[in-house]
# Entry
Amino acid sequence: AQTVTQSQPEMSVQEAETVTLSCTYDTSESDYYLFWYKQPPSRQMILVIRQEAYKQQNATENRFSVNFQKAAKSFSLKISDSQLGDAAMYFCAYRSAGRNYGQNFVFGPGTRLSVLP
Amino acid sequence: EAQVTQNPRYLITVTGKKLTVTCSQNMNHEYMSWYRQDPGLGLRQIYYSMNVEVTDKGDVPEGYKVSRKEKRNFPLILESPSPNQTSLYFCASQRTGGGYGYTFGSGTRLTVV
# Structure
């Protein structure tokens, strides 16, 4: 079974600075998808960014980018020019690409990010 | 607006009193799932459904029931709630194929006393 690990339970960053959240995963599959979700205090789960494992190019969405290292099974999230609204819990997630979806989504335990003014 | 509607948002109940949390999606998604979120554990899957009348257990199914009689609805039933089911619950749906992510409901904070 796949597992997702986020080794940093809490992190903080100064406003306007850059921060990187770590995520590693374990899988024997070659085709899969990786996601970062943001959960602000409103507790709504918001998709931040998505990466397809067969694509070598790292995904980017405005101030959010990932560093995807397939061989190392690492998927870190970089937030540039941090804003107060970025303060949230961030979850890394793995989704199998297999046809038998079943339990196809696995989440990490989360990293709580604080943004200091 | 494409969304997953989950109700209620907050619920306090007593041990043993049956309750249902409703979930409905308007995106015609085949796959729906229930998760519970607990501190330090992330989101753990309770049950999922790949289509109407097709449901299966996730990682933590004990004490829960689900049904999928219509494509849009996927209620979560706690027949006899216990304090260890106090948690934050999310319903989610996704398109099959293409590696799409989940669309989540707004969550239900359940407290069992």
